[in-house]
Specification:
homodimer, 244 residues, mainly alpha, 9 helices, 68% helix, elongated, disordered N terminus, DNA-binding
Chain lengths: 244, 244
DNA sequence: AATGTTTGTCAACAACTGTTCACTGAAACT
DNA sequence: AGTTTCAGTGAACAGTTGTTGACAAACATT
């Protein structure tokens, strides 16, 4: 029993750290496998990676099979059940990882506190870097957001809503558009996030190494954001009932 | 040979009409099956309907199987090949139907020519009616837009881009935002269409018969459009190079 | 050192998949 | 009339799927 608790502890710690550089750098650079839980987590994440890899090859998550994933991960099909009850549970794990990526994006953007000039262009730069580095997470989120199984779809929606909420709170904190009501601010952020994810789909779907087209898509993205914030600036709240 | 040509002709005529009221109303109200080509088209569209029905039950198109569809359609699996080479081809047919729906939406919106007051609210009303009436097409387009197989995904993207283009031309024709360059107008329409499809996903994913929530989503949608057009109104084209 | 726990493996299963081929009967053509 | 065309059928195939249970070896616990 105590062992089980310990396992859970390790799991949470390592999983939550979410991807600090290379997985086992620090103590021993030897490729030897240390504790049992570490190895379990290793195959677990190799299952997750296998799913993402297959998706990168054009498949959608919902169409992936259990055996297909274990094959790609290099383990026997039955091993799957040591980590996930079924494909849905693996999908939910991917949603969590994607959510963590989103939150980290927000944290990164928060560092660029000073709302000086060209805040949009800079945010987009951060976003672009994130997009390329973690492209598989974004592909999964943007792709299954309104396509996959109902369970996963609603889980993604939750994560995205959470992201929207957090973003709107950040804008409030930085006094970014003080004349907007909270509801309007959230509506704004929802619009921005949707635009962001749509852009992600577009950009990640490109044939690779086409910098011209990529720049075009990015410019269009920036232009859309500019227009949105322009609208936000000149927004007037309805006068019926001022926020209490 | 001549028979084959005739078949093609009938196909195009009936398929292109895209859904005028009930399929065979007008001459004989008897439910008897007339010509051979008509019956072929009937099972063809019952295959398409079967796919849509299964999707309505929460499945994504990419995860559907050939046998599953023929089962739902009430024909034997081998019949499938009389109509489509494989699932991708059926998917493309669905994309075409969806595109036709989009074009019809545009045609409907065009009737409301007068750009008087509250044009957004009225357009949204038209959209909502369309959305409910043809919900399966929208579900398919919005769902597989960035999820399904690469072939279908790019086909959808083409249709959506076409829709965006046509919409921007309409706005030009009605002199709607004359101070915008063509490129900006297209960017605007792209933004609107993305917002539209995202709203479609949200609305169609709701638990049925929740008018309160539905109204909330619709209001949010209208609010987003308002903000977008507000931004479009106060948009200033960069002064570097005025459109030649 | 002895005992319990657990990750991964192996073999096997019933069910289902996409696809093939030859065939039927009715509609369409000559 | 006789002949051709063709949508839909039925049986069969090799391959794949998700899932089960028993087992081995490495590890953790006492």
């Amino acid at each position: 029993m105590r062992y089980t608790q310990y396992t859970r502890f390790i799991k949470e710690v390592i999983v939550d750290k979410g991807g600090g550089k290379s997985s086992a750098s620090g103590r021993s650079s030897a490729p030897e496998l240390a504790t049992r839980d570490e190895r379990k987590l290793r195959t677990r994440s190799s299952l997750l990676d296998a799913a993402l890899t297959l998706m990168q090859q054009g498949r959608s998550f919902t169409s992936l099979g259990l055996r297909e994933i274990t094959r790609e991960a290099g383990v026997v099909p039955t091993s799957f059940y040591r980590h996930f009850r079924d494909m849905d549970e693996l999908g939910l794990a991917l949603v969590d990882d994607g959510g963590a990526t989103l939150r980290q994006l927000l944290r990164e953007a928060r560092k660029e506190s000073a709302p000086v000039s060209d805040i949009i262009r800079r945010s987009v730069t951060i976003y672009k870097e994130f997009l390329l580095e973690r492209h598989m997470h974004f592909m999964f989120i943007a792709g299954e957001r309104s396509g996959g199984s109902p369970v996963i779809r609603s889980a993604i929606r939750n994560q995205v809503n959470l992201f929207v909420l957090e973003m709107s709170q950040d804008l409030r904190r930085f006094n970014f558009l003080p004349h907007l009501s909270t509801a309007t601010l959230q509506m704004l952020c929802g619009l921005v996030v949707n635009t962001m994810l749509n852009a992600a789909s577009d950009i990640l779907d490109m044939p690779p190494d086409e910098p011209k087209l990529e720049q075009e898509l990015l410019d269009n993205f920036v232009k859309q954001l500019r227009l949105i914030f322009l609208g936000a600036i000149s927004w007037k709240e309805p006068v019926a009932k001022p926020a209490a």
